[in-house]
Amino acid sequence: METTQGPKTPLQIRLDQAELAALDVYIAQFTDFPPSRVDVVRKAIHEWLAQKMEPAPNVQPLQPAATAPGMLPALTAPSTKPLSPKQQAVVQYILEHGNGPVTAEALQTGLGWKQQAIPVTLWHMTRAGVLVATGDGRYTLTGT
Q1: β-pair partners for 138
Q2: Residue 119 contacts residue 104 (beta carbons within 8 Å)
Q3: pLDDT tens across 10-64, in order?
Q4: How many CB atoms lie within 10 A of CB 36?
Q5: CB 129, CB 77: distance < 8 Å
Q6: N or C end of the chain, less CB within 10 A?
Q7: Could you tell me if 102 and 93 are in contact, meaning their C-beta atoms sit under 8 angstroms apart?
Q8: Over the range 108-140, which residues count as b (16 or more CB within 10 Å of their CB) and which as e?
Q9: All residues at 6 or more sequence positions from 126 whose CB lies less than 8 Å from its CB, including other chains
Q10: pTM of the shown model
Q11: What is the secondary structure of the chain as a DSSP string?
């Protein structure tokens, strides 16, 4: 890890179950010598702060889409990262079940996944704006 001068100040953080599960899944990738939760969080904060201190990269502005003569141009957003196979399976499951809110338990049962895979996938999909957490333990597709 990074070396610092002098004593370190303790910091307490609280993580919900999905965040903690995501952290543990990441740590489980290191089979020979897994880092501690503290080391991973410390490194993540260090990298995040370093990234925030860098100048902002050039952002691609919205470009008008090609339109027929006489039509107003529509703005198109830059392309986003495609969904992973697991994320596609979640979307498909929700659509097949009436496009309504679903729980993590329903996804686990319906998709036959290990319990650890569900919170990580839901967290990533929520952060990407694909899903919305309804606040009562259920998730729904954005815009439904």
Answers
A1: 103
A2: yes
A3: 888 898 888 888 888 888 888 888 888 888 888 888 888 887 776 655 555 545 5
A4: 9
A5: no
A6: N
A7: yes
A8: beeeebeeeebbbbbbbbeeeebbbeeeeeebe
A9: 132, 133, 139
A10: 0.45
A11: ----SSPPPP------HHHHHHHHHHHHT--SSPPPHHHHHHHHHHHHHHHHHSPPPPPPPPEEPP--TTSPPPEEPPP-PPPPHHHHHHHHHHHHTTT--EEHHHHHHHHT--TTHHHHHHHHHHHTTSEEE-SSSEEEETT-
Q: Which amino acid is at 140?
A: T
Two structure tokens written together for 92: 């498909």
